[in-house]
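Dear colleagues,

For the upcoming journal club I promised to circulate an example of a predicted protein-ligand complex. I picked one with PXG because it came up in last month's discussion. The inputs are reproduced below in full, followed by the predicted structure.
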Amino acid sequence: MPDTAQLLVNDLNPYWMPFTANRQFKAAPRMLVKASGMFYTTDDGREILDGISGMWCVNAGHGRQTITDAIRQQASQMDYATAFQIGHPLAFELANRLVSILPGNLDNIFFANSGSEAVDTSLKISLAYHRARGEGTRTRFIGRERGYHGVGFGGTAVGGIVNNRKQFGNMLGGVDHLPHTHNLEKNAFSRGQPSWGAALADDLERLVDLHHASTIAAVIVEPMAGSTGVLVPPREYLNRLREICNQYGILLIFDEVITGFGRVGAAFGAEKFGVQPDMITMAKGLTNGAVPMSAVAVKSDIYRTMMTGPPEIIELFHGYTYSAHPLACAAGLATLDVYEKDNLFKRCADLSPYWENAVHSLRKTKNVIDIRNIGLVAGIEMASREGAIGARAYDCFVQCFNQGLLLRQIGDTVALAPSLIIEKEQIDRIIEILENVINGLD
Ligand code: PXG
């Protein structure tokens, strides 16, 4: 283990930390040095129960031996190979394995390295597909308020979180947004999918009327919005979006970077919510967080449409140096094996009623104004302090960390998404720490 004193004598200044209050952090750093199963260890030797699977990604728990071994083995056999005009077997194997667990006819896989890249890839594929079909006027994208689709210019533009947008000018043009589905009056303390809100999907009709269907390439939504503080889709909402997209020839993209790989109690949110998208973006749980990797799954019709013209032409001028990186493919295959062997998607579904009861037991806790849950995800929303949005949840995050629990704070919601290997006693422990901390916050 690294020597703590050694770590702290290093200057903290050169590293510009992402999505972090750098000056605040560097004044009082929190350092993780080890991870195993459900726990991190800090540089001062404390065990931290990981309530957020790293960052919604370590779905099978930390340090899975078979995944580590697969990465190690691959690194020594072949560290890197380009994916441009050359292949390596693991990439094809992983694509096949993914297709076998994806719902419906999502039969083709494009690899990238982060959720952000997968999202931008899916947007570019939408444009190229419509163009190939002779509908090149379809260039507009519809996202949703409070949506998060990563940090590329495309993903930032279709995303709907104001702090992520306001520093970056116009971004991608020709984007509009559906309303978000958060409504405390109608839906507070819903268990699972709220019963109110399907009609919000009809706003897509308004946007079609405003822009005309012939200008709209795709709608992109997270089946369950995670980063904005866990917004579970109202019943029938996603079905309605699907119907309207069908009616007007608009592609429907599900961004499943968080909801993929068992998180909501099925392989993908599409399966859980029973709605078939035209594309799915995935990342995070794809390699259990061990090596960066993401992918876009597209329906076979999209791929077939693109595979026209002389066979020597490159059909899609897009890709990354590290697309289908051998280490990531090895990690992905080993991860899918773990999910399957340990039946983790079903484990999540089986545990979710216990989880739901546990998180909703916090209903009477001080300042709590909403609790939302699905699968092994929960959002616990607290009233904001006057003039200080986010301060209460930040204090909650810091105090929980000090008491041995890692969670994610988003505005004044705290988000929980533990690994799917969590035991009931660990769920109880999460609730115990949270209840104590929240009740002690002013
Ligand atoms: N789409 C969705 C739905 C995501 O949740 C991305 C795209 C981007 O993935 P990359 O790999 O480019 O980060 C994400 C990422 C949070 C939090 O606070 C969530 C994410 C990332 C960082 C923080 O909940 N999700």
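Two points we might discuss: The chain has 17 helices and 15 strands. Residues 3 and 43 are 8 Å apart (CA to CA).

See you all on Thursday,
B. R.
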